[in-house]
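Supplementary notes for students who missed Thursday's class. We covered one full example, reproduced here. Read the sequence, then the structure, then the short commentary at the end.
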Amino acid sequence: MSSSLRNIPLLYIYSSLIKRVTMPIIILYFLFHNLNYTQIGILASVMAILGILTEVHGGVFADKYGKRLSLGLSAVFGLLTMFFYFLGNSFIYFLIASICYGASGAFISGTRNALMYDTLLEHNITRKFKKYIGRMIFISHLVSAVVLLLIPVVYSFNQKLPFLMVFSFSH
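Structure (token representation):
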């Protein structure tokens, strides 16, 4: 397999590890840390507003500086998100985490699909784009489903560990 074709399985893995299906769990986590509904609404708004404000800029960044760098920055902000969520126990920690969450989304938006397309274009197999994207989506949903099924079991052993599991898949 040529080095650029390695992008395909790496994108499958990356997409599985960053699935954003965690908002219900995040809200429970906020409640677990005694945030009120107003604070939770503010945090959700910060994530949404950052997503709107940075959507185009993240794509421009990926085009100008490279898709791999963009995905790397998404991962870094995702790790910062997880760090602040996991260590946090107050609104300010969660606010910083929400900002990092929004930044992570900005750097990933559209970049994965563009990198997949560029890889297939390089090998003159763009006709398989839908197949590879579909497989990437399927694998990421499957991994998310397994993680979400494991959460109640893990919660019975450790009440904080499920949140760490979900946050590791949330950026």
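Commentary. The chain has a mean pLDDT of 82. Residues 118 and 124 are 10 Å apart (CA to CA). If anything here is unclear, bring it to office hours.
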